[in-house]
Amino acid sequence: MKTVRDDRGNRYLLLKRSESASLVRDPETGDECYVRNDRLEFVDRSGLETAAATVDEPVRTLLGNVHDEETLGLLIELADRGPLGIRTLLDSYDLCESDLHGRLTVLTAAGLLEETELEHGVATERGYRVTDDCRRALETIRPARDDADQDEDASTNPADADDCAATGE
Known about the structure:
The protein is elongated and about 75 Å long. A hairpin with a 3-residue loop joins β2 and β3 (21-25). Helix content is 46%, strand content 28%. By secondary structure, it is α+β, with helices and mostly antiparallel strands. The strands form two sheets. It has a five-stranded antiparallel beta sheet with strand order 4-3-2-1-5. A three-stranded antiparallel beta sheet has the order 6-8-7. The chain is built from eight helices and eight strands. The chain has two domains: 2-52; 58-146, Winged helix-like DNA-binding domain superfamily/Winged helix DNA-binding domain (Arc Repressor Mutant, subunit A), CATH 1.10.10.10.
């Protein structure tokens, strides 16, 4: 499958080409139509890249740079808990320093994390936080929970809330 562009700049996936017209599909909507060949030009982009472009850029970045559950979990924890310092990350999660450093470097280079300085009294510590793009991508792939759902869960079984508070989880 090849990518073509019409004379208005719209990109399509070429499905079938005849002598005078081509059957094309809009990758965004899935709609198919015939367009005269003299209105089409080939684009130097694979059909698979064009199809992937229908997914928001932040989600594509997340999918392209997160290759295991631990890395995804690291991003989720940073999104949920706010910026965290290096020492907190090392103490809280079962990652060695070199593994953590490697993941943080890749995620920062991809634009999913950004480095920050965290203040602890008079001292500062290097830390990391998710970028706005990362937050948007995570919101896209995670189910939304609103405050009403959380309040309902807490009121449904208050014993669970006490156990959680007692164990510090």
